[in-house]
Write a structure and sequence with these properties.
The chain is an alpha+beta fold. It has a single domain, classed as 3-Layer(aba) Sandwich (Aminopeptidase). 35% of the residues lie in helices and 26% in strands. The radius of gyration is 17 Å and the shape is globular. The structure holds coenzyme A. The site of coenzyme A has 21 residues, from helix 1, strand 3, helix 3 and helix 4.
């Protein structure tokens, strides 16, 4: 989980976004390590030629996905994907994406959803992986409620 946490922060820096609010402890809890249903899973891409400070293969990319549901039934929501600068354009992103597709098939998910900033070059990557622009195809608009705990205290 500390590696996932680091990669999430690397992604935020890459995207010039604020650092994630969650902690490593949140990741352990919400990843199902507390015995409850996992809210997410993460896959790491490791370079076995490069060892980290513990002598383990270095993580050079990751994806963090959550379990979701849709009219297609079980669905995976791919929240984040990052390949470290040093390992881009070598097929690592494709490997990670295909690993999610493989897992989706294994657990009976027939849909993978994701969203991305309209200016992000990763859109070409997603398109190449077969993702369809649902905003164009179905006119979907992406909404989000922020700060639910504070804004909806009367409910
Ligand atoms: C998007 C990202 C994960 C792609 O990883 P990658 O390892 O460089 O991609 P790959 O080398 O596996 O490329 C797979 C295919 O996508 C294409 N592709 C990848 N990035 C592309 C880009 N920026 N523009 C156009 N095509 C791209 C490649 O040409 C390749 O095509 P091919 O299969 O026909 O050869 C990586 O660029 C990244 O980490 N970006 C920053 C983080 C980010 O924006 N994430 C998305 C939002 S969470």
């Amino acid at each position: 989980m500390p590696t996932v946490f680091k990669l999430m922060n690397d992604l935020a820096a890459t995207l010039k976004e604020k650092a994630p609010k969650i902690t490593v402890e949140n990741l352990y809890r919400d990843g199902g390590f507390d015995g409850n249903i996992p809210y997410f899973f993460a896959l790491l891409a490791e370079d076995t030629e490069i060892k980290d400070s513990n002598g383990l293969p270095s993580a050079v990319g990751f994806t963090l996905c959550s379990y979701s549901y849709s009219w297609d039934g079980r669905t995976i929501y791919m929240r984040n994907i990052l390949v470290c600068d040093s390992h881009r354009s070598k097929g690592v992103g494709k490997l990670i994406f295909h690993a999610v597709v493989k897992y989706a098939k294994e657990i009976g998910c027939n849909r993978i959803e994701l969203h991305v900033n309209e200016h992000n070059p990763a859109r070409k990557f997603y398109k190449g992986m077969g993702a369809i622009n649902a905003a164009e195809k179905e006119g979907h608009v992406y909404y989000r409620l922020y700060d639910v705990k504070n804004k909806f205290h009367a409910i």
